[in-house]
């Protein structure tokens, strides 16, 4: 059983649950967290544009099933495809920050 008595911050909790930065478990957690964020941003932008998944897929040159997978955090997406979906399908620009 894990000892949560020394957990004082969210970072402490993530470290306890998923290991140190750079560990396999922590990397997987961060990858899943980023995919969740992207999926929620995509879903929100699509709904704001009043588009169905099918309409967005048509505008972006992809399939509805692919949009659905992305919105459910199940797909693996290439950066070029993400940019195309947001820029061609939703008329939004993407900015990236590297930390």
Q: Output the CATH homologous superfamily.
A: lambda repressor-like DNA-binding domains
From the 3D structure, determine the CATH topology: 434 Repressor (Amino-terminal Domain)
Low-confidence segments: none
Total beta strand runs: 0
Distance between the termini: 33 Å
> What is the approximate shape?
elongated
Q: Write down the CATH class.
A: Mainly Alpha
- Average pLDDT level: 93
Count of domains: 1
SS-based class:
mainly alpha
Rg on CA atoms, Å: 17 Å
Task: State the major sheet.
Answer: none
Q: Specify the helix fraction band.
A: 55-70%
Give the amount of beta strand, in percent: under 5%
Please tell me about this protein's structure.
The protein is an all-alpha fold and 99 residues long. It has one domain: 434 Repressor (Amino-terminal Domain) (Orthogonal Bundle), CATH 1.10.260.40. The chain contains five helices and no strands. The protein has helices at residues 10-18, 24-48, 53-60, 64-71, 79-90. Helix 3 crosses helix 4. The two termini are 33 Å apart.
Helix/strand layout:
Layout: H1 10-18, H2 24-48, H3 53-60, H4 64-71, H5 79-90
Helix pairs in contact: 1-2, 3-4, 3-5
Brief overview:
The protein is mostly helical.
Keywords:
single chain; about 100 residues; mainly alpha; 434 Repressor (Amino-terminal Domain); 5 helices; about 0% strand
